[in-house]
Fold this sequence. Notes:
This protein is an alpha/beta fold. It has 2 domains: about 1-95, Ribonuclease Z/Hydroxyacylglutathione hydrolase-like (Metallo-beta-lactamase, Chain A, 4-Layer Sandwich); about 110-255, Ribonuclease Z/Hydroxyacylglutathione hydrolase-like (Metallo-beta-lactamase, Chain A). It is built from 9 helices and 14 strands. The strands form 3 sheets. The chain has a 6-stranded mixed sheet with strand order 1-2-3-4-5-6, with helices on one face. A 6-stranded mixed sheet has the order 7-8-9-10-13-14. A two-stranded antiparallel ribbon has the order 11-12. A hairpin with a 3-residue loop joins strand 1 (about 5-10) and strand 2 (about 15-20). The protein starts with a strand and ends with a helix. Bound molecules: zinc ion (ZN) and fe (iii) ion (FE).
Amino acid sequence: MLTISPLAAFEDNYIWCLCQPDNPFCVVVDPGDAKPVLTFLQQQQKSLYAILITHHHPDHTGGLAELRQAWPDARIIGPTAEHTKIPLLTEQVQQGDVVQLTPFNTQFQVIDLPGHTLGHIGFYSKPYLFCGDTLFSAGCGRLFEGTPAQMHNSLQKLAALPADTEVYCTHEYTLANLRFALTIEPDNQPLQAYQQHCQNLRRRNKPTLPTTLATELHINPFLRCENNALQQRYQQDSAVGLFSQLRAMKDQFKS
Length: 255
Ligand code: ZN
Ligand code: FE
């Protein structure tokens, strides 16, 4: 069992911090900024054991140099395909690799998730999924480097994980994503109810994350492109075609 805490960074990033009650170590995912991590470690009296990186963007890697200075022995584990863009990695991983976090008695499987960036990876250890900027609650990452077909395929890999998977995304984009999702499926009742739920959380300044795969399969339009009725509504005859159209519409959407 892991205790997973969101450390807020910048406008809407979360740096996820993995701890265990009687364990002196912790692990952080995508530290775009070192300060929230250093403050948390000091408050909790923990040492930094490892850093997991999903992709090369600065809001996910910007804290590495300062954290490395403070914790020179910490492992820094990230995508092989982006190692030239993340020079501080101590370990490069890709699809099929397993990351052993021995002090936590936990191992993460690495999943290649090209789309947002070409080398983007996710880390999965049942029931926890750290998916960076690939899957968001009610949305998905922008296609900065990959094609719609690549991103759709990456999302389908995630959709195939168990329904009770806890999805730890890196951004609090949920309410804006929901406004778009409701324009695509205005009559989707679980979607309407989930918007109410998330609005209540945000009013109390609580994260809407993690979400679960079960929820996302009901409410996330980017995971619902296999739905024939939805394809017909947008005159698409394939899931990738619909995904591509929805992603382009979301890029233009003013919430
Ligand atoms: Zn990104
Ligand atoms: Fe990001």
